[in-house]
Amino acid sequence: MRLVQVAKILGITGQELRKELETVDFGVKPTDREVSDNLAMGVIRFVANRRKITVDWDAVEAMRSGIGVDTDDTEKPTTALSPEVTVPVTEEKKAGVKPENLNVLRKLTLEGVSKEAIDRQKVALEKQKPKILSKEEMEQRKVEGKLLQSLEKKDRSVHQEQIKKKTGIVLIPSQISVKEFAEKTGIQVPKIVSTLMKNGVLASINQQIDYDTASVIALELGVEVQKDAGTVSVEALLSNDLAELIKDDATVLRPRAPIVTVMGHVDHGKTAILDAIRSTNVVSGEAGGITQHVGAYQVVHDGKSITFIDTPGHEAFTAMRARGAQLTDIVILVVSAEEGVKPTTIEAINHTKDAGVPILVALNKIDRPNADIERVKGELAAQGLQPEDWGGDIAMIPCSAHTKQGIPELLEHVLLMAELEELKANPDRNAIATIVESHLDKSRGPQATVIVNTGTLRIGDIIGCGGASGKVKSLTDALGVRIDTVLPSGPAVISGFDELPELGEILQVFQTDRELKSYLEAYQQSQGQKQKRGFADLVSRLSEGKLSQLKIILKADAQGSLQSITEALTKLTTEKVQPKVIHAAIGDISESDVMMASAGEAVVIGFNVEASLAVGRTADREGVKIKHYDIIYKLLEDVELILKGLIEPVEEEKITGHLEIRGVFLTKKSEQIVGGKVMDGVIKRTPFRILRAGELVGTGRITSLKNVEKDIKEAKEGAECGMRVTVSIGLELGDMLEGFTKEFTKVG
User: Fold this and answer.
1) What number of CA atoms fall less than 13 Å from residue 190's CA on the CB side?
2) In angstroms, rounded to a whole number, what is the distance separating the alpha carbons of residues 338 and 341?
3) Burial level of 121, CB count in 10 A (0-12/13-18/19+)?
4) What span, in angstroms and rounded, lies between the C-alpha atoms of 585 and 593?
5) Residue 261: how many CB atoms within 10 A of its CB?
6) Whole-angstrom Cα distance, residue 540 to residue 556?
7) 3-state DSSP helix/strand/coil percent for the chain, to nearest 5?
8) Which of 425, 422, 517 is closest to 462 using CA atoms?
9) What single DSSP character describes residue 334?
């Protein structure tokens, strides 16, 4: 049966019938013009019941039998004149003649219709005539009609997959096209354009709209949007200024968990304390009970999260600071109640003070028989950490990692300090994180442990970190469990880098590959031009009044010298600048001293101590100045000149003398014991150049100078002496050593 016939039986138009067929899946395609008789009867019954239509089933049966079939395929709506249709039937029907052999005549007539009824119909038709519009109105409707028509035409495919409306908060930039807005919100473009038109904005699919307009439209369409903080500038990323990178509008900030670094002397129980907190056995799997890698863990106490960083000593803490990553919110200083303060403890205290991070002291091993809490408090007070019960401001919690005594109180103090600090971050933005550890996994390739500073890190995010880049393939927590997202202050292990990122580097999530490419190009370009801020820059900033402190790391050969120099330096204060000794200790200058100076923009001063070649190379790489002295007044004079701005930010080199090598007695790696004769000038414990056949072949430094068995400060012209030296290349007989010093150039 034809669908046109079904519509006529029901007294509706063909278009109305097709709309009814779309509500229920009868298996009728939009292109079908005929259906089976059984299906047609089912459709008639369904629509009749739905619309409360009375159907003449005798007429339906007659139509099925072929009587009164309309051979015209066009759809003709039923009018008020329909009841006047007459279908004359011949006598052959009664005689049982086959329907297909009948000639049917369909006749329409107005016979029997009164003139009044016809006039009423004419009046009704006159009233239905459309209102005549002005030329301007017609043009406006034409433009709007064409726009909506073109958009609906693109969207009208039967097999087109419908966009799913997004749930949750949608991030919108300051400017966005209508098409991009549709993709982000999951709303069809015609609906967005229609809503814009209602609000007086005529916009095409590629036209840009601002955030304010987009937020109004989103509110009307039932979508929650928020302004995207966007990707930070390449310049900000290259500067590695974390404080600047995570700046955000105060209205979007939410409380975050504190990030805690555990520091202290080796074997005082840093990992054991963390083990007690995490209730997992980590120490037994580590060589010699010393932490072998940087790990980040998160625990929950009283329903609040705390993130812990377990660093190998304080090297990682300093390395991150040297790269601008001020990641730590609170430092827990672990001190043994049995052994007390050690040199490493003092170094950790000085690192923390210079970083300006709040300190919480954990007095561990109180269960030991030789534990003396009051004595240790006194030692800490001597280092400037006054206990609260002594009237100070440093909380010192007695605890035991073995018995877990005091561990809950330690966590409560961490949460209290975090509450006072009012730590907050914006979770609804592109993530910025800090690398706290990286390693190469055999199966997953380069991996890194990160802590998210702000934003939310997700699987699939496009990431860049220094020269490394990639896409987040997997995220796992400290226990190796896979996770989908990481919120601010949360730790995770990331895989997906193309190379290993460096410790302390800042990780940034980019929205597109194009943004990542721009960043990597700028990074590579900057690496070629990058120079560490050196001593010359430090002196310039002091002279210009940009710095109010000259930070000094002081190393000396004896406690008496150390104390007297420290006291003398504190008296050199000027109106604008004052010296500040951030770390003072006995012994040779180490790489840790250099890294601390790099992080705090300090000068390293050594009195009668040495620095190895490896330390010198580290200092050159980090842009740190190491000054050696053997006379106190010369040391104080140079510092005073720096404070008063009376020296140029350059040094003048002076050759002190030449010595010829006459004997090589011991060679051990980069260290040698040699003997020689001073050919001219004076030879002191200073750096020297190695001249072989008149050509420069290497450098070195005299660490010890002797005449027979007696230590001497210098050897004059014509004198013979023995020396212990560190060299970049082995000395040979006949080599000439050229000693030199570098001195500041005085102004005027």
Assistant:
1) 15
2) 10
3) middle
4) 10
5) 28
6) 27
7) 35, 30, 35
8) 517
9) E
Which residue's entry shows tokens 């660490």? 703
Whether residue 383 contacts residue 353, with contact meaning beta carbons closer than 8 Å, is answered with no
One-letter amino acid at 468 equals A
Residue type, 724: R
> Considering only CA atoms, which of 227, 244, 228 is closest in space to residue 236?
244
CB atoms within 10 A of CB 338: 19
Q: Which residues does 453 contact at the CB level (< 8 Å), separation at least 6?
A: 242, 245, 246, 327, 425, 432, 433, 434, 488, 489
The CB density around residue 137, as the number of other CB atoms within 10 Å, is 11
17-21, 190-194, 429-433: segment of lowest average pLDDT: 17-21
340, two tokens: 């007390």
Q: How far from chain centre, in Å, is Cα 99?
A: 82
657: left (phi over 0), alpha (psi -120 to 50) or beta: left
Structure tokens at 118: 């016809």
414, 406 in Cβ contact below 8 A?
Answer: no
Name the phi and psi angles at 540, rounded to 5: -60, -45
The DSSP call for residue 718 is T
Residue 246: DSSP 8-state: T
Specify the pLDDT at position 158. 35
Q: What angle do CA 674, 679, 682 make, to 5 degrees?
A: 85
What Cα–Cα distance (Å) separates residue 36 from each residue in 25, 39, 56, 64, 215? 15, 5, 20, 11, 52
Q: What is the mean pLDDT of the chain?
A: 78
Alpha carbons 584 and 556: distance in angstroms, whole number: 8
On whether the CB atoms of residues 508 and 501 are closer than 8 A, the answer is no
What's the half-sphere exposure (Cβ side, CA atoms, 13 Å) at 595?
18
* pLDDT tens by residue, 90-141: 444 444 444 444 444 444 556 666 777 777 777 776 666 555 667 777 776 6
Q: H/E element holding 559?
A: helix 559-570
Instruction: Check residue 70 and give its pLDDT.
Output: 45
Q: Using the 8-state DSSP alphabet, how is residue 101 labeled?
A: G
Closest C-alpha to 296, from 506, 424, 436:
436
> Whole-angstrom Cα distance, residue 317 to residue 325?
9
User: What is the pLDDT, as a whole number, of residue 319?
Assistant: 60
